[in-house]
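User: Predict the full complex structure for these chains.
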Amino acid sequence: MAKEITPRSENYSQWYNDLVVKADLAEQSAVRGCMVIKPYGYAIWEKMQSVLDAAFKKTGVQNAYFPLFIPKSFFSREAEHVAGFAKECAVVTHHRLMNDPDGNGVIVDPDAKLEEELVVRPTSETIIWSVYKNWIKSWRDLPILCNQWCNVVRWEMRTRPFLRTAEFLWQEGHTAHATAEEAEAKARQMVGVYADFARNTMALPVIVGHKSPNERFAGALDTLTIEAMMQDGKALQAGTSHFLGQNFAKSFDVQFADKDGGLQYVWATSWGVSTRLMGALIMAHGDDNGLVLPPALAPIQIVMVPIYKTDEEHDAVIAEFEKIKAGLEALGHSVQIDDRDTLRPGFKFAEWELKGVPVRLAMGARDLAAGTVEVARRDTLTKETMALEGIEAHIHGLLDDIQANIYKKALDWRDSNIRKCDSWEEFKTEIQKGGFLLCHWDGTAETEQKIKDETKATIRCIPIDSCVCEEEGVDIYSGKPSKGRVVFAIAY
Amino acid sequence: MAKEITPRSENYSQWYNDLVVKADLAEQSAVRGCMVIKPYGYAIWEKMQSVLDAAFKKTGVQNAYFPLFIPKSFFSREAEHVAGFAKECAVVTHHRLMNDPDGNGVIVDPDAKLEEELVVRPTSETIIWSVYKNWIKSWRDLPILCNQWCNVVRWEMRTRPFLRTAEFLWQEGHTAHATAEEAEAKARQMVGVYADFARNTMALPVIVGHKSPNERFAGALDTLTIEAMMQDGKALQAGTSHFLGQNFAKSFDVQFADKDGGLQYVWATSWGVSTRLMGALIMAHGDDNGLVLPPALAPIQIVMVPIYKTDEEHDAVIAEFEKIKAGLEALGHSVQIDDRDTLRPGFKFAEWELKGVPVRLAMGARDLAAGTVEVARRDTLTKETMALEGIEAHIHGLLDDIQANIYKKALDWRDSNIRKCDSWEEFKTEIQKGGFLLCHWDGTAETEQKIKDETKATIRCIPIDSCVCEEEGVDIYSGKPSKGRVVFAIAY
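Assistant: Here is the predicted structure of the two-chain assembly.
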């Protein structure tokens, strides 16, 4: 192995941290809780952005950019929002540094105190609705469908790369509508975009559902979520879409003249996914050899490693690789020939495995003479000797197979870790084994809180795209009547 | 006219502000000096990003992401850099808000004071070199070629949308090299990328040159710049590329083992362009009717306006437009049919002129019957009736013509406003008329400062891609010997 990784069975959490660092995805910076996203990690994020951005635009959404800073007073306007977001955040109080009169570098200039402190955005509902107030006068101005790709800051106490960091990158969509129905439909549409992206691009099976009131976004009437299961059986919330009702419109006094000339408050949604998706991707598919990247998100889809003793052998193999590379690039694939002469092939194999490259080709003089090449799949770790004839078309199809197989593997594993549970005693044991438990719930925040206090498990969602849950029953904890099962799990 | 714009001749500065707001590019926010980039403006910025990003990647540059916050002490490490950048900046001093015990919203929690204050990045050399220290051990780790697209904050006192804002969006490239020659070549290469982008994509003629020491980036040994001329004759610095020598490597102790096993400090460059380019685009090409967008950056390249009295006429024209639209989209163009039924064609014409859409098609029942369409060019404000037959190919070629014509117009105008000046008395009068003055300079900071104090003019650059300037002479101000002419102008 190129670099040693802790096996999952030994310490899943350490395995994750090892992977992030050793596969060159990210690292800690000198600033507490803020990570550096390295080029290889960022290239995956760019691919995510590009697929999502196109999907948003297809629904009529346009990108825009709103300020990084939010006046402190804005947070007091929406009562629930202030409780949820104004707590742990970065506060700008001054606008100047000066040379320390004692000669010790620079200090904050006490004369440069801001009249009103500015908060580095933890999310942008407040600043955006203060802007929408100027944009919206009449029903003709609606809907407004804006998204921004940006950084946000939440002063988290315990951070983990990608999963929970003080600063992270995300997109936040903010839409304004004339009716509640239209806003609710938009919130549903966008959680659908996220679910499609997770399944088709990330190869990540997700359950779509409503959050329980306890787990809702601060200021939302309804939060829709996509929930994924990691390999340790914990749940990871991978994206959320909120129906905000008229809360922000009322807080920022955003009204529109309807077709009859009456004044009405505007209806809102917001929805976002973040670099947390990187954490989901790593944890859902990685193995003890490293990352396993779905071809749709792999910065390098095919790597080629030459095996040679002489310069002649080297040149002949590289020449053949260049031909295959050109063919694959013409089919839209990203290819890298690993021609570093200071490393042995075995070292390179391990390194590209660690980095999760879906397909690896290796070729020596004997292969070349025989008109063959060795094709290794990252997802199954299997190798096959194939004819060079038609190799490009074969790999083109193979990448689709790999994408489908990674999804199927994650789906099978997840489904084998979803189980019904109807007894509280059983619940307390079962929930510790990981996985999702489908249980009856009486619909009250009290019961959910008590279950959380006793087991750390939360309701991940009330599923909407699966009918298995619609049945009458009794709450697993309180024994009160229930109209359907919800998903309980311990979550990241 | 849809919305009134101040004519350039009346008040150029107000014309610019009118254009920014009325063409829906950007607006002021509730936060001092921070703008909102509206969807139409952001769509232009996205096009800029996409062309530049591809050009960077072609040179081997990879994107990454570094923290928004920089520990205050980092700014003290590089002596010149602290003087240049640590002054007017946003300083985070606390990490929590709390409910005001007096019940008046939220206040900063005095118990949540940071041990060391954090500066919101005004530029990222310091944090990035603190990271590069971990990445660089040996010559094998070099070069490092990273770029990031992000937001930065400089607490400017007088702000103008796009041209000078407290928060702005930009890209900053930061490279690390084993030799001075390689770093200098990279700095030159990147200013070349900027120049190509300005000329070919923005249709903006620029002069490439070195900055004088007074105008250099804080911490650089050499700053290369592209300088453009706006329609009021002022200069606008549109992008810079810096050779940083070993200054940051020394400040952050970044050394590498060379091939002979010796330890050497790493050589650096940094280079950036920002949303300021939006200001350059607006000011270089706009006219009294509004924006004039080069087709390469126009979010909508062709707009189609139907003219009709009856529903039948409307439907027939729209059906024809849909056909043309499909043909143009197949050629890679972005098209919008303006089918709003609440506005008159004349109003729509003015609105799309204001927004700078390069080509407008208008068609009524009579055109349709005759197999013709009216084609209007935004750059020349001319109209022509054309046959529908082959219209897609015609427009495809027309867009190239428009791109070339916008560049030529700007180039002719600029060149007619560059003049040599060899007398100090003449200089004082001529510089007030605007334009670039090519003058001899003795190479001293003192002379440059005196000229600036007396006239507000600065040396925009010492040109490197034009031989007109290499001639012996005497300094226009001091009378001392000079080895060549430099470009003086009053700048944004």
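The longest helix of chain A spans residues 391-415.
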